[in-house]
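lol ok so funny story. i was supposed to be doing the assay writeup but got distracted and ended up predicting the structure for this chain instead. priorities right. anyway since i did it might as well share w the group, maybe its usefull for someone
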Amino acid sequence: MNSGSVVASFSNGDSPLMLRSKKDGSWFGTWQPKSGLDHVVISLHAVEDSNALFGTAVTSGSISSAAEVPIVASDGVVSAASFSRGEALAPGSFISILGKRLANRAVTASAIPYPTTLGETQVLLGGRKLPLQFSSDGQVNAIIPYNVPINTMQPLIVVNGSTISQPESVTITAAQPSVFTLRQNGKGAGVIYGVRSNRSPFLITASDPALAGDILLIYATGLGSVSTVIAAGDGAVGVNRTQNPVGVTIGGRDAEVLFSGLAPGLPGVYQLNVRVPDGLEASEEAVIAISSTGQKSPPVTIAVR
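and the output, tada:
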């Protein structure tokens, strides 16, 4: 049922809640209970627009005190590369979830593919369990599955043991690129390597800048669907290109994109191979940006000469 109304009512006296349609047969809403209770009954009443389709459902359980449950910060679901608040996110993205009481202890995934449970923490986006790379009290890193529908708003919740956060709405778009940075906060120099004919890959720095004609390896996330779908949280093997066109500018000049796809063995990470254009002014902070499906990455910098 994609149209009509679904209303949840509560035995503790809270006001009824109108749910919203995800346009895929499922409906969602956020209920903030007034207090903890040992027992509460939730009744759901659904009616399709023509009244030809209708139904009811009942579920019950206890409500934990709000002081004990995980809290996802407002606009706290962000790209793990840019940490920009309020941006949409793309399928396949490496994301960070910011908040409080998200996990009881810090745990890092020890193997690929990433598990959907770290310690006692799980994350669900639109009902899909996300692979987790890291979990702690204030931050969880996860991968958005490739099959999350684009141009939708999906509810994200964090489960810590027997407690569940209030949903945080996440907008899903075809692509929202962002470049990983050396400071790991979305600012400053990007994680960019250079390749020359006589050298192995080297990290671009002010003391070892990029030159015209160099091939750059740029590490990013948020470039969306790829030619061969893999499980979220698994590492790519072989060549797996992005399906959305990608453009790159360096110092305001267009750069030739030789490859855009998943970085081998790095879940949620994309690699772009780009040729440095001629005519750039020498700078330790030339701006580099990626664009795809009309969305541009937050600017990061690169040293060029």
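Residues 11 and 41 are 5 Å apart (CA to CA). The domain at 67-172 is CATH 2.60.40.10 (Immunoglobulin-like).
back to the writeup now i swear
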